[in-house]
Amino acid sequence: MRIAISVTGQDLDSSLDPRFGRCPYFLLVDPETEEHQAVPNPGISAGGGAGIKAAQEVVNQGVKTLITGQCGPNAFNILTAGGIKILQAPAGPVRRVLELYKQGELAEVNAPGMAKQGMQGRGFR
Amino acid sequence: MRQLVITSGKGGTGKTTVAACLLTLAWRAGIADADVDAPNLHLLLHPKLLDEREFKGAKQVVKNEAACSGCGKCEEVCRFGAIKDLAVDPFRCEGCGLCVYVCPEKALRLEEVATGTLMLSRTRYGHFAHARLYIGAEASGKLVTAVRRKAEEACRDEELVIIDGSPGIGCAVIASLSGTDLALLVTEPTVSGLHDLDRILKVAQHFGVTALVCINKYDLSPELSAELERYCAGEKVDLVGKIPFDPAVLDVIRQGMPLEDLLKTRAGQAIEGIWETVRMFLH
Amino acid sequence: MIISVLSGKGGTGKTTVAVNLALSLAETERPILLDADVEEPNVALYLKPDVIVDEVLPVSVPVPEIDLAKCNYCGRCAEFCQFNALAVINGSVMTFPELCHGCGGCAIVCPNRAIREVPRRIGTVEKGSSGPLEFWQGRLNIGEPFAVPVTRLLKQGLSELEGETAVIIDAPPGTACTVVEAIRGSDYALLVTEPTPFGRHDLDLAIQLVRQMRIPHGVIINRAGSNNEIIVDLCNKRNVPILLVIPFSTRFAAMGAKGIPFSRVMPDWQKEFRRLYHAIKELCQCVN
């Protein structure tokens, strides 16, 4: 069963792009065989509602799972209506994301919103 | 990375000056000028341009005169009055593409058009993302989003990005506000300042962004400052500081002195106090 | 004659100039004052007696409503919509009215006539008066991104005016589409600025805008003082006349803060604004 990942490039050596609506590509991957195919995100050139366009594309691709960083409320509603499970992962190499996925380490997103990356407890100066 | 947006409903309340002071105080931070149709920060930061590119932010209808039969169907369906006497008015066209759809001769097509210039620069304080919306262009919100993305990309390793917002409550403001961690609303003690603060605060609340308020030039009207304070207390929003009217600030800006000199002014001192509170909220 | 007041930079005193000009002409010219800064309308705060509103017009955008009994989920509407205000997924249609520009295309492309348009309120236009002054204003609702439809409806009434009515328009700050809509069709543009580097920079943008729109224009320096050179220099370079200089004074600032137009208290300034109006009128006749 293929899953979709929002990514910066076109293959397994690229990185996860945490921005769902404006990521350049979605990588459709079979986690078992690692066979994959990149589809361009039509949302990237959208005048508005990039997340909507991107979500529509992911639904149309027939996947049931999406791994991304953050998605807004509109995209979230479309993905949910399309029966897609949304998993959250930090920006990083796609291979690492796949590993985390196989180990069941990725949390499911149950509400739309922006991911906070935190300050790791350090000040500004 | 945390994002702090400095904004105000009313124009000319001192957003840019406050943003510049906070940048100096944060010392290392990314900065983005989201006031794309009247950007001013570059006048203070003496930026070194690293990258500049045209930004295609809208679609517009383009006509192939040779194919047009003059039937006028395009003019009939356009609700924006963007086609008059068979000519396209680029100021009015919103790029919906309906005329393209109805044209029997296929004489019209949608084309991406540049709506501004997107720039990345280096400054002493950190990377600086900025833009210039072409005169009269639409979709300023989209250019603002692009500026913020540019800042996010260039400042991956920074802990803070400061965004200098635009006045108003419309698309450019929404684009500079949404998804930020904190908004500092700069107001002034005037009837307009109070009215516009109320509107921008409601916009921040609408988009779920925590807002703090500071009053600039508070001593120009102690009476209205007191009213602003009462307003903040009533709305349960934190008033994090009051900045005095200080002509020395303009002297620093006029003479192009380093930003550090701003902090030596009375106004700068007050902003230093504001920064202490703001950084607590950012944690 | 339509005179627009704009500035590029915010907070330079557009509203102050527009209100003082309109009030100074109130008795003789019976002008209409328009607040076209629909994101942050402030003119009413300066008007005493309070504005009496005679007419309230809702501003709405027609957005799609789907008749699910007729829809076969072909997806043409979503495909057509440039603004992604519709999505069709696995046997359901979702609409995102806040993204809709109201072009009406989805209803036209739908092969099953399953889409009808319903109005969605985004703002208000009010028409009324304050004393002898006729006053119209537009107001965009909180959270709405598109201000232009409000400005458009606000100005619609102007085309129906007959004769030589003086109209003064307070435009929003900046140089984007909302400003274009506000000042379109003006006979003259007053560019209000202040003698600071920011004021100069944004005045230059405003000059480019009115040049592109071919609107004759002149400059007013507000909060003027010892640094006027910075603006005078630009005006000389661009060959734009300076029509009025309003000095900085804490007295003006205090009155502005409380929403008191200074010409009310200082009748000499009413004369100045009337002189300004007649100077503009003459300039416009030269152009024509």
Task: Please provide a written account of the structure.
Chain A contains 3 helices and 8 strands; from the N terminus they run ββββαβαββαβ. By secondary structure, chain A is of the alpha/beta class. Chain A is globular. The termini of chain B are close together. Chain B has 11 helices and 11 strands. Chain B has 283 residues and is α/β, with parallel strands linked by helices. In chain B, 59% of the residues are buried. Chain C is of the alpha/beta class and 288 residues long. Chain C has 2 domains: 2-49 and 131-287, Rossmann fold (3-Layer(aba) Sandwich), CATH 3.40.50.300; 61-121, 2-Layer Sandwich (Alpha-Beta Plaits). Chain C is built from 10 helices and 11 strands. At the A-C interface, helix 1 and helix 2 of A face strand 4 of C.
Give me a quick take on this structure.
With 125 residues, chain A is of the alpha/beta class.
Topology record:
The complex is a heterotrimer of chains A (125), B (283) and C (288).
Chain A: E1 3-7, E2 15-16, E3 25-29, E4 36-40, H1 50-60, E5 65-68, H2 73-81, E6 85-88, E7 92-93, H3 94-102, E8 107-108
Parallel strand pairs in A: 1-5, 5-6
Antiparallel strand pairs in A: 1-3, 2-7, 3-4, 6-8
Chain B: E1 2-7, H1 15-26, E2 30-33, H2 42-45, E3 48-63, H3 73-77, E4 83-84, E5 87-88, H4 98-102, E6 108-123, E7 126-133, H5 140-154, E8 160-164, H6 171-177, E9 182-187, H7 191-206, E10 211-216, H8 222-235, E11 238-243, H9 247-254, H10 260-263, H11 266-282
Parallel strand pairs in B: 1-8, 1-9, 2-7, 2-8, 9-10, 10-11
Antiparallel strand pairs in B: 3-6, 4-5, 6-7
Chain C: E1 2-6, H1 14-29, E2 32-35, E3 52-66, H2 76-80, E4 86-89, E5 92-95, H3 105-109, E6 115-130, E7 133-140, H4 148-156, E8 167-170, H5 177-183, E9 188-193, H6 197-212, E10 217-224, H7 229-238, E11 242-247, H8 250-258, H9 262-265, H10 267-287
Parallel strand pairs in C: 1-8, 1-9, 2-7, 2-8, 9-10, 10-11
Antiparallel strand pairs in C: 3-6, 4-5, 6-7
Helix pairs in contact in C: 1-10, 4-5, 6-7
